[in-house]
Design brief:
The chain is an alpha+beta fold. The chain has one domain: 2-Layer Sandwich (Alpha-D-Glucose-1,6-Bisphosphate, Chain A, domain 4). It contains three helices and seven strands, in the order E-H-H-E-E-E-E-E-E-H.
Length: about 150
Amino acid sequence: MGQEAANPIELEIWIAAKPETVFAFLTDPTKLVQWLGREAMLDARPGGTFRVDVNGRDVVRGKYLEVERAKRVVFTWGWEGDGDRVPPGSTTVEITLAPQLDGTILHLRHSGLPKRDRDAHAPGWGHYAARLKMVVEGRDPGPDQLATPDIVHG
């Protein structure tokens, strides 16, 4: 289709926890689903599976490209389903963790999204970054308002 890629989504948050702790919430399926999705199948090593059932209907799938314990995770990202505009593995999510004071700066960069899909993904990443921060810091983020089958991904 030749759809031009948009500028990457980038966000940065500070989390009151060590990078090792944050890293576990990005690579352990039981910890990941506390802030993102209902079920996760993760094999956090280069070439390993990244698959998250977000809401009982929409499923993200990709592969881990880089996994550097407590420092960096890179995986591909796309939605399962026929004719999806962002097919599995078609975009890249890079998350870096840097210690700062008594916590961690998390930097997320999602690149390769078509322009028409960037605006749908950007608020989602903001929502899930806030949930990640709460969970890692030991707070209950409550029910995920985006994880209902009534809400369709971008």
